[in-house]
Amino acid sequence: MTILIVACDRSPADNAKPVASASVAVTPAVVASGMPVELDVKFAVAPDAPPFQEDYEVFVHVVDDDGRMIGAADHAPPTPTKEWKAGSTIEYKHAGYAPISDYVGYATFVVGLYSKSSGERLPLAGEAIEGRAVKAGSFEIRERSEPYAVIFRDGWHPPEAPKGSGVEWRWSTKSGTLTFANPKEDVELTLELDQPNGVFSVPQHVEIRLGDAVVDDFDLEPGTLMVRKIALGQDQFGEGQSVALAVVSDKTFVPARLAALQSTDTRQLGVRVFRALVQPKQ
Questions:
Q1: Which helix (H) or strand (E) covers residue 244, if one does?
Q2: CB neighbours of residue 193 within 10 Å
Q3: Residue 260: helix, strand or coil by DSSP?
Q4: Which residues contact 257 (CB under 8 A, 6 or more apart)?
Q5: How many helices (H) and strands (E) does the chain have?
Q6: Are 222 and 200 in contact (CB under 8 A)?
Q7: What is the rounded distance in angstroms from the CA atom of residue 137 to the CA atom of residue 143?
Q8: Rounded CA gap, 191 and 196, in Å?
Q9: In Å, what is the CA distance from 40 to each residue of 8, 87, 92, 109, 201?
């Protein structure tokens, strides 16, 4: 969700009172690997919960039937936890993507709250799955089927995927080309990208080009995950068998040349792209 949500469990030796219970529902309820989803997240704060001393993060794990984690994502809830009150209910929607995995079947959301500074997890009410993490819902993953699969062509570095994360990305160079079969209908391109390094004094400016036409452009602030939804009309595609889009950044960097990054990476890097998805326009 990229992807999902988790609550916390109490082991037999953990007698701490739960501060809240958690639940997660996903739309659609049946998803394919990597497809966009929307989570309905709900925390019911315990009536006797003490004030939250800091703004905790929500962690999200997705596990398969064997208990293997196939996806994970952390996020800050829209209402910071220091503003949560005893007896209140916190509900919000969180957009993301289903895990990228070859797993097909039912998967479980495991949800928790943790401190970014110390890593401490808060006790939550519910069925314990792992240390202070509880079962918060389930959904079904089916085989992936994309009508217009996007291919990363020239200008991209090989994909990177931390083991067990369910997340994959590619770095662009200054300009990276994306291609897909000519849909001959109106479609929407969803592009999820970021710049995790604060290496520029001003944000990068990114253009999405279709031939000579700029179909979208925006400033990419460092440290912020951005999701762009770009409407593309069939009259823009011409009669060719495929469509080529360019993701162009006005600035690039080489990590090895920046002492602050303490890196030996000599690649030219533009932006980091997590998802490029083309779907028929709704």
A1: strand 242-249
A2: 24
A3: helix
A4: none
A5: 0, 20
A6: yes
A7: 20
A8: 16
A9: 17, 19, 6, 12, 37
- What are the residues facing 177 on neighbouring strands? 246
- 3-state class of 83 per DSSP? helix
Contact in structure between 131 and 121 (CB atoms under 8 Å): yes
Token pair in block for residue 95: 């957009």
Residues in the chain: 282
Query: Which H or E element spans position 132?
Result: none
**In this predicted model, what pLDDT tens digit does every residue of 204-232 receive, in sequence order?**
999 999 999 999 999 999 998 999 999 99
What CA–CA distance (Å, rounded) separates 68 from 162? 15
pTM for this predicted structure: 0.60
Distance CA 19, CA 113 (A): 10
* Coil, strand or helix at 259: helix
Backbone angles phi, psi at 269, to 5 degrees: -120, 135
- Between strands 30-32 and 133-142, the pairing is parallel
Q: Is 87 left (phi over 0), alpha (psi -120 to 50) or beta?
A: left
pLDDT digits (tens, 9 = 90+) for 118-173: 999 999 999 988 789 999 999 998 876 667 888 899 999 999 987 766 678 999 99
